[in-house]
Design brief:
- It is built from 15 helices and 25 strands.
- The chain is an alpha+beta fold.
- The strands form six sheets. It has a seven-stranded mixed beta sheet, sandwiched between helices. A five-stranded mixed beta sheet has the order 6-14-13-12-7, sandwiched between helices.
- The relative contact order is 0.13.
- The structure holds dioxothiomolybdenum(VI) ion.
- Dioxothiomolybdenum(VI) ion binds next to loops.
């Protein structure tokens, strides 16, 4: 495959999206459907004692107002997030925004108006448990992942160290905020259920719905042609999807529901705030003698969501002694969920800030410090790296950025009223891999069709699929038709964890290869094989791919230390009068296995860098400790970067090929871009101002409070 060929530049889903003809879940024709709006609890704790629905029932166009008593029991399968819905049967309220009723009407505005007429009464509402007001609160081990890992003697390593740095860092609650809010259309035909949804796994949705309604798996069809951004908040199944299907079942007519932007802040997860401590010991030459990293994140009251913020500290740097510990603290927040670059996104903010502190404490250049601590094998497990090109990322990105011109002293670079800061950080991301199957078919006229039950989340996956299939078959990629987003197609798993190119791509490669062999057996040469395809007039092959046996449930290798890497360099300009930090330019180099489609791969990384800029400077969903809810449930109060916040981004990939990650040599790319930028910016702020800000985001108020402005 020629990564640089124009074939790598295609985006077959582009025209439909640009012209507005791409159909998203909420665009499904109403077809006699009722429009549904959820009513959420206005308190975060306590019990629902009365629900007054008469006014809503009498409002214009309203056909039904359903409460917990009206809906069937819905047993939940694995990986389902709406635990609280089960509890609301006995009136328990676990978070503000928890669904307590669903209003159906003949128009969305009418349903929304009527929803505002529902009145609830509550009892036993207590002061909510928050995260940040009780830093010494009881912390629990998460159930689903190993919380503690260690090797060597950290205490001895610290005692023997020439230099020790130790500090606490925090990251904020953040919301995914996709352009397309979650939406579901559900229709029952007897015992058969058809759902149009905006989800990162049509298969998991199918499984969850069939379990909830006690119908055969095959009786549920889930359709999701496009996702207008997910970033993790559409990865699992949430209450609104089950409630929409339940409302359709109870009322006997199709139901269409779209969450409001406000509901997107309570109804499908968020990235939880973390508090992390990092302690590093180093010898006189900057080589680590000990590394300790602990993290606690806010979880919901009954949930178990753990941010694996300490994971990367086990594989990033050589150290004879490593100790990581991870805890969760239950709070009265809605349920968190993975968000773009889970684990390493929050975790590397802390580790890479700490490495910068160590660089200053030892007087060693931050790039050089990282090079000196580059390990030969996985520092914790001793496993070989499947591929690791961090060194090349660091050196080449430093060169492109012009790092050699930096004067290391804080406050030493200035342009008029602006302080200039140059900072850098390394990036890494775990390698999740999921099984997939695909079918490739060729017609007598040479038309090629690829079918796979995956999802297009906005990354350009159809272009990757077309590129891979056309490369194997020697056809024109523009002539390859790609079908996806329907559980009737060969199954694939979640579009999450930056895994799609490995899983789906490898399955497409396998199916196309098999088809090519079949064509060869028929003596068909080139694409002029009309007549050789027999009476059917077409030939097809279906094949699959999955991570090797012994991998964990998320497809992570247990044989190799398998990760992606990068290096991010940022220049910030700090207005001393305003306390305003702006990113002026950014250079980032990544090593993520073989790059299949350079154009969309680059877009993934620039998108990720925008997420990193948001993490460092803007995104903070403040949780109100009195009312127990997120304060700004809209995009005015919860700020995300806009174009004006994003400078020119210089992104490149270093040559990398990982034969162990996938047969294509490819690894995951999407989430890697959202790692590292946060710390690079924080480190640049230190270089600019001489003040170390350890709490993300670093908004104007925080910069002022740190005394980093005048
Ligand atoms: Mo992603 S947070 O794995 O959708």
């Amino acid at each position: 495959m020629n990564a640089a060929s124009p074939a790598g530049l295609r985006r077959p889903d582009g025209p439909a999206k640009l012209t507005g003809t791409a159909r998203y879940a909420a665009d499904t024709p109403a077809d006699g459907a009722a429009y549904a709006v959820l009513v959420g609890a206005t308190v975060p704790t306590g019990r629902l004692t009365a629900l007054h629905t008469e006014a809503a029932r009498g409002a214009p166009g309203v056909s039904a107002v359903l409460t917990a008593e009206d809906l069937p029991e819905m047993p939940l399968g694995p990986l389902v997030q709406p635990l609280p819905m089960r509890r609301s049967r006995n009136g328990a309220i676990d978070y503000e925004g928890q669904p307590i009723a669903i209003v159906l009407a003949d128009g969305w505005e009418r349903a929304r108006y009527a929803a505002g007429l529902v009145r609830a009464e509550y009892a036993d509402v207590r002061r909510p448990v928050v995260f940040d007001e009780a830093p010494d609160a009881v912390e629990r081990e998460p159930l689903l992942s190993p919380p503690d890992e260690a090797k060597g003697d950290v205490a001895a390593g610290l005692a023997a160290a020439h230099t020790v740095v130790s500090a606490t860092y925090t990251t904020a609650d953040r919301h995914h905020s996709p352009m397309e809010p979650s939406a579901t259309y559900a229709r029952w035909d007897g015992d058969r259920l058809t759902v149009h949804d905006s989800v990162q796994s049509i298969g998991l949705t199918q499984l969850t719905l069939s379990t909830a309604f006690g119908v055969p798996f095959e009786s549920v069809r889930v359709i999701c042609p496009f996702i207008g951004g997910g970033f993790g908040c559409k990865g699992y199944v949430w209450p609104h999807q089950l409630l929409t299907a339940a409302a359709a079942k109870v009322t006997g007519r199709p139901v269409k529901l779209a969450l409001t932007r406000t509901q997107m802040f309570t109804s499908c997860g968020h990235q939880p705030t973390t508090r992390q401590s990092v302690t590093l010991g180093a010898d006189a030459r900057g080589r680590l003698t000990a590394l300790r990293h602990t993290s606690a994140n806010a979880a919901s009251l009954h949930g178990d969501h753990a941010e694996g913020a300490t994971e990367a500290s086990t594989w990033m740097y050589a150290s004879p002694a490593i100790e990581v510990r991870r805890r969760i603290r239950h709070t009265d927040r809605p349920e968190p969920t993975p968000m773009r670059a889970p684990h390493q996104g929050p975790g590397m903010f802390a580790l890479e800030s700490a490495m910068d502190e160590l660089a200053y404490a030892t007087g060693i250049d931050p790039v050089e410090l990282r090079l000196r601590n580059e390990p030969e094998t996985d520092p914790l497990t001793g496993r070989p790296f499947s591929s690791r090109e961090l060194r090349a990322c660091l050196l080449r990105a430093a060169d492109r950025f012009g790092w050699g011109d930096r004067t290391p002293e804080p406050r030493s670079m200035r342009d008029g009223d602006e302080l200039i800061g140059w900072g850098m950080a390394a990036a890494t991301m775990d390698t999740f891999r999921f099984a997939a199957t695909a079918r490739v078919r060729v017609d007598a006229d040479g038309h090629v069709r690829v079918e796979c039950g995956t999802q297009e989340i906005g990354t350009g996956l159809p272009g990757v699929i077309a590129t891979i299939a056309s490369d194997v078959l020697g056809t024109d990629p523009d002539a390859v038709e790609v079908r996806f987003g329907d559980t009737g197609l060969p199954p694939a798993w979640m579009t999450a964890g930056s895994s799609a190119t490995m899983g789906v791509g490898s399955a497409v490669h396998a199916a196309a290869t098999e088809l090519k062999e079949k064509l060869g057996a028929l003596g068909a040469s080139g694409m002029g094989f009309a007549g050789s395809l027999g009476a059917a007039g077409f030939l097809e092959a279906e094949a699959g791919w999955g991570p090797e046996e012994g991998s964990d449930l998320a497809g992570r290798s247990r044989t190799y230390s398998m990760h992606t890497y990068g290096a991010v360099f940022a220049e910030v300009r700090v207005d001393e009068e305003l306390g305003l930090v702006r990113v002026a330019r950014c250079t980032a180099g990544y090593a993520a296995g073989r790059i299949i489609n350079p154009l969309t791969a680059r877009s993934q990384m620039t998108g990720g860098l925008a997420w990193g800029i948001g993490q460092a400077l803007l995104e903070n969903s403040r949780f109100d400790g009195h009312f127990g809810r997120f304060v700004s449930k809209n995009l005015a109060g919860y700020t995300v970067p806009v174009n004006a916040d994003i400078p020119e981004l210089d992104v490149f990939f270093v040559d990398d090929h990982d034969p162990h990650a996938s047969p294509l040599g490819a690894k995951g790319i999407g989430e890697l871009g959202a790692v590292g930028a946060g710390a690079a910016i924080a480190n640049a702020v230190f270089h600019a101002t001489g003040k170390r800000l350890r709490d993300a985001p670093m908004g104007i108020a925080e910069v002022m409070a740190a005394g980093a402005a005048r």
